[in-house]
Write a structure and sequence with these properties.
The protein is mainly α. The chain is 54% helix and 0% strand.
């Protein structure tokens, strides 16, 4: 795996590397290999993942066919809404 460093911008290159590793599933693999997983647990996990993938594909297909409404857009905190953690303060 290669990441180019442009203009000595190492931080941007690190970000790109992390994104590539995330996409390849390296972090997930490391987490799974951290401890021993019994074969029965592994089968159960893989079966649950397969079911989750199949449901996701079916849900997307139904949305495309118009049988389900499209997903609601995610609202980012602080974007267009008042942030509840930071009350408005006045400077007098």
């Amino acid at each position: 795996m290669r990441v180019l460093v442009r203009d000595n911008n190492v931080e941007q290159a690190m970000k790109a590397l992390k994104r590539k590793l995330q996409r390849e599933g390296v972090f997930r693999e490391m987490k799974l290999r951290k401890a021993y997983e019994k074969p029965s647990e592994r089968r159960a996990r893989e079966q649950a993942e397969a079911i989750r993938r199949a449901r996701k594909v079916a849900r997307k297909k139904m949305q495309r066919e118009g049988l389900l409404p499209p997903p609601k857009p995610k609202v980012l905190p602080g974007k267009g809404q008042m942030n509840a953690r930071r009350p408005l303060t006045s400077t007098v």
